[in-house]
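Dear colleague,

Following up on yesterday's call, I've attached the two folding results inline so they're easy to grep. Please treat them as preliminary; we haven't cross-checked anything against experimental data yet. The first protein's sequence and structure tokens come first.
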Amino acid sequence: MSEHKHLNWPLIIGLPLLVFLTSAGLALSSILRQHPELAIALTYDFALTAPLIYLAMIWRTSIPKTTAVPVFVLGLILASWVLPVHLQGHLAGLKTYLFPVVEVGVLTFVVYSARRAMKTYRKHQSGQLDFYSATKMAAAELLPQRLVAPFAMEIGIIYYGLINWRRRELVANEFSYHRKSGTPAIMGAFIFLILVEVISVHILLAMWSHLAAWILTGLSLYSGLQILGMARSLAKRPIGVEDHILKLPYGIMAEAAIPLDLIDRVELTSSRLDPDNPLASKLSPLGELERHNVVLHLRKSIKITSLYGRKREVELLALHVDEKEGFAAFLEDKKKQLGL
């Protein structure tokens, strides 16, 4: 934080902004009408010069290097606004060829960094770091903080939905929560309904517009992939204790980390939570669609991270655990060992 305070922000932001303003001024002036060949130079000033200057300014700082990507995108947008359409030939080429390369490059680097983080962690620690957690660690070094959770979730959806189909075996002191909850069946029903709906709607829309039909079909199929990735992530991220912290993931949809000394008691119950208590909540973002069988009573409130990084404050946390008695006994034994 102290390093960020000592950064020369006026220079870091000012130089790329100066390039943008100068280029925009030339593009909107009569000079471009008299010398249309300048459009090529202005195009590359918007798309390359400004982002590269910004990248050079932050290169030796802790600012994520990938923040140059939004500067690049902003340059493309500004160039699209101020350059005459008939002079956007090179701009169209950058959008078609360079922009996808930048996107794939960032994605590849994050996935590579996530896998490297997993290997390093497993080499030096006794615990297991899953792909989603490693992706968040890697993304935190590359992206602004508020983009970390949404970015990691989108990567997790693709990874768990399409790539990682290997069975995840539980190790000692890990607990599953998906086998007896019925949640995978509910999500499977949602996917089935999406597939049925997309076929019928596609046929109807195609009578009016083939483009609209395929756009809606693509969006629906991606929604199905999202649900599939979320459902499959439940089995990949079990509950466990690590370094005196109870890790409570709910796939990639929610997670909480609770120090064991904050757990007052573990109640085995399926009773409905008090709807008037704002600090009583379920771990699962599915709410009443999934019944709980464990309630953790905490000594003080904590924050749960939910879908796409949203936060919820809880003091009573309800969740489902397949082996609830074993889970409760394990926590009690662990707390006794620690003298809590």
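Below is the second protein, in the same order (sequence, then structure):
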Amino acid sequence: MLPTLDTDLLRAFAAVAEMRNFTRAGEVIGRTQSAVSMQIKRLEDQVQVQLFRRDGRAVELTENGQLLLGYARRILKLSDEAMTHFTAPGLSGVVRVGTPDDYAVSFLPTVLGAFARVYPAVWVEVVCDNSVQVMEMVAAGKLDVGLVSRGPMTPGGELVRSEPLHWVAAEGEPIYEETPLPLALWPEGCVCRHHGLSALDAAGRPWRVAYVSRSCSAIHGAVLSGIAVSMMEESIIPAGIRRLGPTEGLPELPDVEITIHRRPGKLPDAAERLVQYFQERLADDQPLRMPAA
């Protein structure tokens, strides 16, 4: 039988990988520097590969270390979920979340699915609207939590993830060569729309609105049909759509910053725990992809 991986060793390993320092990692997990070093040595002996390159006080992951880190995070996440399910006080109640449609399609299914498995007595209600309207509802107390894009009309919030933003078109369709450039857009107030139009205007590229919808699926359909170009975050680009850039004569786009906003006052425990799920599972180092249809 294969030996099993000790979660204590994996937790020490993940802490060192994040802090890049044995002493600071020990402070995070409540161990001395020498104890952490011994744990890493035991883990390296167990997996029979070197996990870190040491350079004075700093350490860097080896290629094998990078590979193990992905496994370690998944194992620790599942372990923590299981322990929370059986040992944490039961949570119940209703949590009201607002988010744009593209995030509801790409991010929420995975996060809410994991949350529901651990806290089945919590009901999560989701409202889809653009970031500006979501923030207004959060500020008015009509929603507990807003997961939105940061932009000129939606400042502040707690940054949880940055997503690369791309120009996109249907594969095999040279629609991007047209002048003015036909665009499929979300309504006014969408940060992706703001970034895209600002970049085109700065580059002096003429454009026209060919299609407008609040629905992520509708925007996907407009692009896939070949009638327009659009701009999409990396993790909501489905199969059949290609990324465009300077090679096709389109300007560079900035990343989209995804933020959390809380309603005024103290959040209920269930809402605060859901916020923690967003923080953990939407981190930049966690890959996100469109779920299967």
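For the second protein, one point worth flagging: The chain is about 40% helix and 20% strand.

Best wishes,
A.L.
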